[in-house]
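User: If only I could read backbone structure tokens as easily as an amino acid sequence. Those tokens are not coordinates but codes from a learned vocabulary of shapes. Could you go through the record with me and say what the backbone is doing? Here is the record:
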Amino acid sequence: MDLSKLDPALAVIVPVATPPAPAPLPAAPPPITGLRSRQQHQADTLAGQASDRLHWKQRLPAAQATWPKIGKEELAAVQGNVHRLAGLVQLRHRVSREQADAQVLAFLAPPKAAPKAPPEG
């Protein structure tokens, strides 16, 4: 259709409806802290075990001093595996599994930093 041939006096302006503005999105909930998924927990555990295995040879003398009834060869064969070490502690030192687990976790826990002395002044 050719609009140049239309009579401008007959033209009618029709308002075009604009779509309504979209509703604002709800605010994002605050992130949940302290709760972790099972996969996150497993990943942290595996990373810690890998670190323990890497540093196990350095910890052998301390482990031998902590559990003297376990032989050096047996401790070396553990290779930082928490469950195997707890099993050996339980077997050789005749303690419950809970006690063995607690001893192993305390042994493998990172050392706590010494408290800083207050500044003198």
Notes: The mean pLDDT is 79. The longest helix spans residues 38-54. The CA atoms of residues 115 and 121 lie 18 Å apart.
